[in-house]
Description:
alpha+beta; 4-stranded antiparallel β-sheet; 3-stranded antiparallel β-sheet
Amino acid sequence: MFNIYKKIVEEVKEMERNAPCWCGSGKKYKKCHMAIEERMRIHADRGEIVPKRKLLKTPYQIEKIKESAALNTLVLDSVAEKIHIGMSTEEIDQIVYNVTTKHGGIPAPLNYEGFPKSVCTSINNEICHGIPDKDIILKEGDIVNVDVSTILDGYYSDASRMFTLGKISERAKRLVRVTGECVELGLAAAKPWGHLGDIADAINSHAKAHGYSVVEDIGGHGVGLEFHEEPFVSYVTPKGTEMLLVPGMMFTIEPMINEGSPDFYIDEFNDWTAYTIDDGLSAQIEYMVLVREDGIEVLTK
């Protein structure tokens, strides 16, 4: 913790009050980030986890990331228009690739650490990282998470939606509904100068109240300049803990809610897809958010 405090002190000291702010806003430091960083220093002095300056997006970066996020939303909307019973998950991959590249973007998952496709399609008992395939056909009663991530002009965005195919079971319907509620409650709990643990507590409490579990070892992440940045966003930590939410931070809210056990295993053949350990259903919805001085802004969902 001392190193975090020392880093904040060093960053604040290196800026003169009347110097142009480091963020490129064109304002003097004293009129821009000085008050924010002095407040961060107070929290660091209390032993709280505070973000490094590099995690606070500049005004220019925010605008560019928003452009990427707008394309990401367009891609998800395109999937929503065309997804149907009888189509293969490979067809979803083709939609994502074609729409993304048509608008000058790059699908972030494609070739990321060896991932072979442009999107993740996770069905029923697949928690995440399902790989599209021409032989995987969507059928009546399926629930599927489509996770889209986009690079536009070097800036990243990330969101996912749950889709239901035809008439689904009551248990599947309830899980998808509660997952959506968890995300909305997590979003409502996210406030400037609060903590990531506030989001986690809201999500975990609601999931448990409905008899569900939250996956512990896979969570959200910072995003914008890279696909995955600090911090790791857990959804099982206590309220008032984890990193301070400072204006300029950007991250995902994407809990994975399991019908049964929170435990999982990874497909031994593709080394990517995570499955529920007990074959129960799993659902996930992902928002990408920006912490602002006056609240939280959803960039893509």
